[in-house]
Amino acid sequence: MTGSETEMYGPFALETTELSKHFDAVKAVDRLTISIPKAGMTSIVGPNGSGKSTLVNLLSGMLPIDGGMVIIDSVGLKVVKAYDTPSHGLTRTFQEVRLFEQISVWDNLMVVLTTRKWFSALMERDKPSYKEKTVEILKSVGLWEKRLDLALNLSYGQRKLLEIGRALAMDVQILLFDEPFAGLFPQMLEQVKSILKDMKAQGRTIIFISHNMDIVRELSDRIFVLDSGELLAEGDVEEVLSSAAVIEAYLGV
Prior knowledge:
By secondary structure, this protein is of the alpha/beta class. It folds into two domains: 1-89 and 173-253, Rossmann fold (3-Layer(aba) Sandwich), CATH 3.40.50; 97-171, no CATH class. Helix content is 34%, strand content 25%. The strands form two sheets. A six-stranded mixed beta sheet has the order 7-8-9-4-10-11, sandwiched between helices. The longest helix is centred in the last third of the chain and has 16 residues, at 186-201. The protein is globular. It starts with 5 loop residues before the first strand and ends with a helix. The mean pLDDT is 89.
């Protein structure tokens, strides 16, 4: 990475400076500047088309940046590469769950824990530390009894849990969750909320997108509201969600 692509910045876990992404004439993210603290849980809300998922894709290197900068743990990046984000202490989940379908739940975690080089992975996978970590994560996300099942045979909610487990296995500070509660039955939803609360208690930086305002109110320490790729409001969750502009634009009351 060249010197022009990397600079050193301040104390937040994650920041953007004039971050932009355009799709032809559509400004999906338009000169967005935000700062997310290291501690606590931050939500990003807004209607479809407001730029939430585009923002997460820019932060995680899934889309190239058209302008501006992403700052991860004080390191400024004008180019974010998806494969390199764990080295900066960041990982993410997807709204559409992405797993290795044809291997077991256990092996889905072992693939993350071991090196990406296949020969080295075969040599490393029997290390006691990896096995212990896999057991710990499977129990923490409630999938221990499913450890030998193929990922493709899991229910939708269990697939969400496994993807969260894979994110945990990356052992990073910053975790981005794109609609982690969408489509879950109440019992599974409570389980996912509990897992995120545990991550917060461990001191990790949790950032999530959600359309569920009840969950946003319950979990968020800080909130960012987007409107057509721009920042409409930010701050304390109750103050922001009770503001006239946000009520008019997003809550419809």
